[in-house]
């Protein structure tokens, strides 16, 4: 009888331990978190669509918690990636390349979009052509960012002008693209290198006019306007997770290509949620025409752009981007 009781106790204890183990495993699966970063720019619509349609939750293992973090500029984004505050996301190619050449262990695993940069002049600023920019000031999101490099490359190579950063003729200031129209209206800046949809917003508001449109801007249609990046550590330690993340980004991009009207609606709503600015459908329609939503990325174009960044003095050494682009997850 004692043996029977002892056996029963062992069985019950084993069942209890198994139940505890099952509970812990379940808790472990639910504890996984992934944070994706992007900007409230139309070049980053893939991030907005993926968030709205919960595409990361569909692609990642069951129980994964997906968070999103929004950034005002590329430097803040790259810092968050390097410190592990985010696992992956969409950023301009400039910050990605600058941090890579500074020793950051990051990889571009896809593109986010191409095009969408417009150089705008303030209405009534007396600027009829780029030759009129001597003595004027221009604004970009950040020193050395993608749009800044595009503008300065254009001015130097095509018009022989540089900024006050190198004792040149054009004064440079920085600010958030969503504020550019107001800064034009108040006369605080003369020229802006603007990512969409803010160029189209300026056009609608009537505070500025197109000085150089996307096809004529330096690297305007060939350079990825946004790239999808992650850390080398994550690629090495969990390539399956990276594949799941990239798959969700690809699905978001294909959704944009196949459902442009719905994607535009999502963009309008997300930009309003993040920036408190509601853009009209006319603004989004105009901006859409300047952008190519693609996840394909060309390493050679990125290298050429990095060379321009070096020529402008944003990089201390001649860049070598060998190894920056890792296309295994989109092939």
Automatic annotation (TrEMBL):
GO cellular component assignments: periplasmic space; plasma membrane
Alphabetical keyword list: Cell inner membrane, Cell membrane, Membrane, Signal, Transport
Localization of this protein: Cell inner membrane; Periplasm
Keyword Signal listed: yes
Main location: membrane
Family: Belongs to the bacterial solute-binding protein SsuA/TauA family.
UniProt name for this protein: Aliphatic sulfonate ABC transporter substrate-binding protein
Organism annotation: Allobacillus salarius
């Amino acid at each position: 009888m004692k043996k029977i009781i002892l056996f029963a106790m062992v069985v019950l204890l084993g069942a209890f331990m198994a139940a505890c183990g099952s509970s812990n495993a379940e808790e472990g699966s639910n504890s996984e978190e992934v944070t994706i970063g992007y900007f409230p720019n139309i070049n980053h619509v893939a991030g907005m669509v993926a968030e709205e349609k919960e595409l990361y939750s569909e692609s990642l293992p069951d129980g994964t918690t997906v968070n999103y973090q929004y950034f005002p500029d590329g430097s803040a984004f790259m810092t968050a990636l390097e410190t592990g505050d985010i696992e992956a996301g969409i950023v301009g190619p400039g910050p990605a390349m600058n941090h890579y050449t500074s020793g950051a262990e990051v990889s571009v695993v896809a593109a986010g979009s191409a095009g969408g940069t417009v150089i705008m002049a303030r209405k009534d600023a007396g600027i009829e052509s780029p030759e009129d920019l001597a003595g004027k000031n221009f604004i970009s999101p950040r020193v050395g960012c993608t749009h800044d490099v595009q503008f300065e490359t254009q001015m130097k190579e095509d018009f022989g002008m540089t900024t006050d950063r190198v004792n040149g003729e054009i004064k440079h200031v920085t600010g958030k693209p969503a504020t550019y129209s107001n800064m034009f209206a108040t006369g605080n800046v003369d020229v802006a290198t603007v990512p969409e949809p803010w160029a189209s917003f300026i056009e609608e508001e009537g505070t500025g006019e197109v000085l150089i449109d996307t096809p004529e801007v330096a690297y305007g249609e060939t350079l990825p306007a946004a790239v999808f990046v992650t850390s080398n550590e994550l690629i090495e330690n969990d390539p399956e997770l990276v594949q799941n993340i990239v798959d969700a980004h690809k699905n978001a991009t294909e959704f944009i290509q196949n459902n442009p009207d719905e994607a535009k609606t999502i963009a309008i709503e997300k930009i309003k949620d993040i920036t408190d600015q509601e853009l009209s459908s006319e603004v989004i329609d105009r901006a859409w025409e300047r952008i190519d939503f693609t996840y394909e990325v060309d390493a050679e174009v990125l290298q050429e752009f990095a060379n321009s960044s070096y020529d402008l003095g944003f990089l201390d050494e001649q860049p070598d981007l060998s190894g920056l682009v890792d296309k295994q997850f989109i092939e």
